[in-house]
Amino acid sequence: MSYSVAVAGASGYAGGELLRLLAAHPEFQVTTVTAHSNAGEKLAAVHPHLLTYAELVLKPTEAASLVGHDVVFLALPHGASGAITAELPDDVLVVDCGADHRLTDPEAWATWYGGEYYGAWTYGMPELPRADADTPATATAAAQRAELAQTKRIAVPGCNVSAVTFGLAPGIAAGVIQADDLVSVLSVGTSGAGKSLKTNLLASEIAGSASAYGVGGVHRHVPEIIQNLTAAGGTGVSISFTPVLVPMSRGILATSTAKLAPGVTAAEVRAAWQAAYADEPFAHLLPEGVFPRSGDTTGANTVLVGLAVDERAGRVVVVSALDNLVKGTAGAAIQSANLALGLDETLGLPVNGVAP
Ligand SMILES: NC(=O)C1=CN([C@@H]2O[C@H](COP(=O)(O)OP(=O)(O)OC[C@H]3O[C@@H](n4cnc5c(N)ncnc54)[C@H](OP(=O)(O)O)[C@@H]3O)[C@@H](O)[C@H]2O)C=CC1
Ligand SMILES: CC(=O)N[C@@H](CCC(=O)OP(=O)(O)O)C(=O)O
């Protein structure tokens, strides 16, 4: 069976990456692409690298363009997807790459985003371990996958959120690190900010320079990270989160540290991540002493993790890398859509990065 697919926001970075991956997917046929200011243009005019769908004409982003498809991927600015989705039939699988449906707490939405709250959807991170807070060591990703298999509405995680969650969740779920004193500093590529012109992203200002932003616990990804790590079994989750814009177009390299739980050995720490990712197709723990580079994941739906125990500091140091446009958005969206349609979770998704 082949599914007809619409991609809204196809002229943007996330939309373009969805199209690149969907072109290699054996069960999906993209028949509609939409845009905002670029509506009316051929796709070839905005994404010359995408030959498969080059002749499709970008329609306006409105419900009328999207109805009649089996699957709709939304890659729109925050706040733009809620109203459109309300007009789509319940039996259409809708996968939103934006933040509109990620947060389960309406107050958190009001605090960090604002505007109308359209409610949380099934969270599109199949690997997320979920635990009863009293028994974190029993956390597995089975519950998340089971929910995804039943849903018609998927909220794709934020890209920075994914990098941090993949880095820390296994240790929290297994109880080998403390959740109340987490620190994550991320090197992030510029494409995470989207295609529209922003003054802090002028080439003359980012080339050859690194700059922190969202400093002081004010980045909107903080509540989403806390939501995930709490679901993984963390109690009193507290994280200091600082992204640093670096001169690369794609990729995120997150360095996260956490206090070792009392009495835990280095071998037990490693075993926690090893067990969590042993059977995962897209999450991988690297051998001892090996740490990922962001570029190792370019183009792949893969998150790579390296870890070490800093005995002097009493902390675990986890380095996690992913491509913000693939495992950080478009790849995660397709992986979750595969599950929701009962397809092989890995269908159409590259596992190997492009390096160097
Ligand atoms: N870039 C990334 O790494 C990641 C992005 N995301 C999320 O994916 C979504 C898209 O991001 P990204 O592709 O980077 O952004 P871009 O700015 O590159 O693209 C935005 C898309 O939305 C369209 N658009 C702009 N304004 C409106 C509007 N008012 N109403 C409807 N459509 C509009 C644009 O159309 P046009 O260009 O024709 O005006 C374009 O197709 C965002 O919610 C983002 O947070 C999530 C994780 C990672
Ligand atoms: C460089 C840069 O600005 N990156 C963005 C990535 C956000 C993202 O893509 O996630 P959302 O879907 O939650 O917007 C940021 O840190 O805000």
Automatic annotation (TrEMBL):
Report the SUPFAM superfamilies cross-referenced here: Glyceraldehyde-3-phosphate dehydrogenase-like, C-terminal domain, NAD(P)-binding Rossmann-fold domains
MF annotations from Gene Ontology: N-acetyl-gamma-glutamyl-phosphate reductase activity; NAD binding; NADP+ binding
Fetch the NCBIfam families from UniProt.
argC (TIGR01850)
Q: What is its main location?
A: cytoplasm
Q: Which GO terms describe its cellular component?
A: cytoplasm
Q: Which CDD domains match?
A: AGPR_1_actinobacAGPR_like, AGPR_1_C
Kindly state which keywords UniProt assigns to this record, in alphabetical order: Amino-acid biosynthesis, Arginine biosynthesis, Cytoplasm, NADP, Oxidoreductase
Spell out the InterPro entries in the cross-references.
AGPR, AGPR_dimerisation_dom, AGPR_type-1, NAD(P)-bd_dom_sf, Semialdehyde_DH_NAD-bd
Q: Which gene encodes it?
A: argC
Protein name, entry field: N-acetyl-gamma-glutamyl-phosphate reductase
| The family this protein is said to belong to | Belongs to the NAGSA dehydrogenase family. Type 1 subfamily.
Cite the EC number.
Answer: 1.2.1.38
A Pfam family name for this chain?
Semialdhyde_dh
Q: Which residues form the active site?
A: C159
Cite the annotated pathway. Answer: Amino-acid biosynthesis; L-arginine biosynthesis; N(2)-acetyl-L-ornithine from L-glutamate: step 3/4
Q: State the species of origin.
A: Schumannella luteola
Compartments where located: Cytoplasm
Stated role: Catalyzes the NADPH-dependent reduction of N-acetyl-5-glutamyl phosphate to yield N-acetyl-L-glutamate 5-semialdehyde.
